[in-house]
Amino acid sequence: MMKSVRPLAPLAAAILLVGCTTTDPYSGQTQRNKTGTGAAIGAAIGAAAGALSGDGSTSRRDRALIGAAAGAAAGGGIGAYMDRQEQQLRSSMQGTGIGVERQGNDIVLNMPSEVTFGFDSSDLTPAATSALNDVSNVLTQYTDTRINIAGHTDSTGDAGYNQRLSERRAQAVGQYLSQSGVSAGRLNMQGYGENQPVASNDTEAGRAQNRRVEMTLTPITQN
């Protein structure tokens, strides 16, 4: 009897994955649409949960389909919400030197220190405040996200000093967003010093990549 139920979750996911691939209007690259992916994953989970909750074969089948629909709505809703936010951020950050990257349902803004701060300073540059004004305009429209701000340095100099500098820089970005209307309750600022490099510190190019502030936007979900 379960043979007629088992294919439902993969089928729901397969149907929803159609149309998930889109072209990034900013880079021209083909990428998987996060809304469709989230909906497909939600559908598969919902179908499986629904199938397990029924008593007879018909009940299981019906519950699986209902569960798939509910799961798709939840997963797709979060994905669509973050899709819209990502699109606005990409548009706003064009030409600023600040990168926008999508990681699942999270959005990561990479702010190189050469753009954001002066040498050995935690004072925001005019270019940084202009970009953060645009970021805050988007963040105040999309209030169901948490904002984690992480400061990073290269390994040049004293590790303790680098740690404190990274903390001051993360605080500077967070405080500016708060002053620009973003709720302080959504903000979390932390410095990591030289402990999380993304490139080698043996070259100037690598050190430049490591000197950065990363802002990660994470959807707030309610259980």
From TrEMBL:
Residues 194-223 are annotated as: Disordered. It comes from Halomonas elongata (strain ATCC 33173 / DSM 2581 / NBRC 15536 / NCIMB 2198 / 1H9). Keywords: Cell outer membrane, Membrane. The keyword Membrane applies. It holds the Pfam family Gly-zipper_YMGG. Transmembrane segments: none annotated. PROSITE patterns: OMPA_2, PROKAR_LIPOPROTEIN. Signal peptide: none annotated. PANTHER family: LIPOPROTEIN YIAD-RELATED (PTHR30329:SF21), STATOR ELEMENT OF FLAGELLAR MOTOR COMPLEX (PTHR30329). Residues 104-221 form the OmpA-like domain. This is OmpA/MotB domain protein. CDD domains: OmpA_C-like. It is found in: Cell outer membrane.
